[in-house]
Structures are given as C-alpha cells and as structure tokens.
Amino acid sequence: MLRDVIRAGETYAIAPGIDRAAVRALWMRAPLETHVAEIDGAAAGTYYIKTNQQGGGAHVCNCGYVVDTRARGRGVARAMCLHSQARARALGYLAMQFNFVVETNRPAIALWESLGFATVGRLPRAFRHPHEGLVDARVMYKWLAD
After folding, report:
1. How far apart (Å, rounded) are the C-alpha atoms in residues 15 and 2?
2. Mean pLDDT value across the chain
C-alpha cells in the first residue's frame, strides 16, 4: 500500500522512485512507532508517529497515514488518527502537527478538521501534483493536552 501511494505522487513529498529499503527506513525505522490497521485480518492502513522537532519542540509529534486503496471510505484513517492521538498522549506528547498536507487531498483535510486539527499555515505552491500542477500545502496542528 505504501508503494502505491508513493508512486501515485499525489499526497506525499516522497520521490516516486524510492526503493523498498528506503521506504522501510522512512516508515518503519525512523519513527518512534509504526502501526498497522487491519480489517478481517488484512492490512488496511498504516501510520507512524515520531517527534516532530528536537529540543524545545520535542513535545510535538508528527504522524503520517496511508490507507490501502481497497479500504478507503471505511473509517480506517479516522480510526488510525484517533489511535495515534491516544498513543501520542501515552508517549507524553502535548500536540500533534502535520507538516505538509497537500491541498488537493480534500478528504484528509476534512477528516483532520473534523478531528479538531486547525490549519496554522500554508505553503504556497509547495507541492508539484502530477495532475494539478503546483498546489499549496498546509501545516495542521492540534493541542492534545486538554
């Protein structure tokens, strides 16, 4: 599922030709935790959680989510985001930040907003979408400590 999303080049600023070892390092070795969501015993999605910045910013985490194309529209991303927020709190994080939400990823933006994330910044024309051309990316943020 990671290969398909990365190769599509529509939501992640990851080189579409990245090799398997580099993807594994990016998604499974660099993060603090990586989780897999299942439906009926089959992988339906995955997410990672990691510290967004070091030092004075280490109380803010970052997550990345991918849902298998066959599982879209079944609540997998919502479940993973809720799970990631619980994990973040358990790990001692006080906030969660999404650094680069591509503007054309409207379903994700709507979901993140419904779960309390706010757009705190825009990066104009920061992402080269394979079909839409240069599009904005959002920085989205949620305080978790309340």
Report:
1. 12
2. 95
What is the C-alpha separation between 127 and 116, in angstroms, rounded?
A: 24
pLDDT in tens, 9-58: 999 999 888 999 999 999 998 899 999 999 999 999 999 999 999 999 99
Query: What is the spatial distance between Cα 19 and Cα 87, in angstroms, rounded to a whole number?
Result: 29
Distance of alpha carbon 135 from alpha carbon 127, whole angstroms: 5
**58-107 confidence digits (pLDDT tens):** 999 999 999 999 999 999 999 999 999 999 999 999 999 999 999 999 99
**Which residues have CB under 8 Å from 20's CB, separation 6+?**
3
Buried b (16+ CB within 10 A) or exposed e, 84-105: bbebbeeeebeebbbbbbbbbb
Q: Please report how many Cα atoms fall inside a 13 Å half-sphere around the Cα of residue 104, on the Cβ side.
A: 15
Type of residue numbered 65: Y
pLDDT exceeds cutoff 90 at 146: no
